[in-house]
Structures are given as C-alpha cells and as structure tokens.
Amino acid sequence: MEIEKALKLREAHRKIAMKVAAEVPEQIGNWRELPPKHLEMTRIQLFETLTAIRRFDEVIESYVCDTDGDILKEIEETKKTNGQFHRALLLLDEALSRKPAPVAEGWQRDNTVRPKLRKLSLKRFGGDPKDWMEFWDSFEGTIDKNDTLSQRDKFEYLKDCLEGKAKQVVAGFRLTEANYAVAVQMLKDRFGREEEIGRAHYEGMINYSQSLVTEI
What pTM did the predictor assign? Predict the structure, then answer.
C-alpha cells in the first residue's frame, strides 16, 4: 500500500472514530430514549474503525522505520490518538455491563434456560503475548472451530479461560452471539500482533540476562 494512501485512509478513519467517540457520553446519558441495541452497535462501529486504523498504523510505522524516520514520535502520536477511542470503548463497556438489555416492540426476551456447559480442560491465558499463540492454537482447535457450539457458548468458554490482563480486555462484554467475534479480535489485536509477541520475547531475554548478571 502506498504510504500517501495509507496516511489519507488513516486520517479519514480517525475522523470517523472521533465523531463516534465524541457522541458516546451523550448516548450513555440518554440510553433509555435510544433504540434497542444502539449502544452495542456504536461499540461495534467504533471497534471496527479502530481495527482499520490499526492496520494503517502498522503500514505507516513500517514505512517510518524503513526510511529512518522518527518512529518514537509516530508511536507516541498513535498511542495518544487511539487512547481517546479506547476510553470511549471503556465507557461503552461499563454502560453495557450496567444497562439491562432492551426489548424491542414485537420481540420477547430470551428466557430459555440454557444447559450448563460441560467443563473442559482448556489452557488458560493471562495476558503474556509470549503465550498467545500456544493458547489460541489450543482454544481454536477445541472451541473456536467447533461447529456444535454457538457463538455465545464459545464466548463463555473463552471468558472462563482468561485471567489477569486478558480477562480485563473482555470484562465489560456481555455473553452474546455478536460480542464473541468482537472480543476475539480485541484479544488478537492486544496480544497476538507479531510486534507485541517479539517485544515480549525480547524483554524476557533482557530480564533473564539481567538476572544472570545479578547472580554473578
């Protein structure tokens, strides 16, 4: 992708995200007057826009590195800008965790008593990027690609496998069909990116080397 094109597309998506994020506080304050599922749709829209922005960030950061540009400045600007959108996502997560799910006219709540999922011996993940690939390979083969499970059931299994930082990422999500895919993508973006995994391994090596020096 040409760098000029990536810059223009990122700027366009940032403007969309800024508009959505700016409306979040008012939407949360007036959620009773909003159509059913409005906050959830806002959250999905913001998350999808952020996912697109992240793809352009990676292209631009790679270009800056290759041309000996100021990569630190680029990363700091990216974190500052995207941080505004992440705060809006957190506000939506908190609101959705408190707000009872609305019932649209002509629809009934799903009061079906769901059978309790059987316990499986699944690998757990606490948020260390070095462990992500091993965790996801195991979970994907056992749960994610299991066609006998609903998306909601997969999400329930996923939440049971998470702890620490990883659990915090999806803490505000309700167990719904739509939220499973969003939660998985957020975890992949947070812990599964190659640069995050590489950085975690590098820091682990540095810490190990320092511990050896200390022992000597």
Answer: 0.47
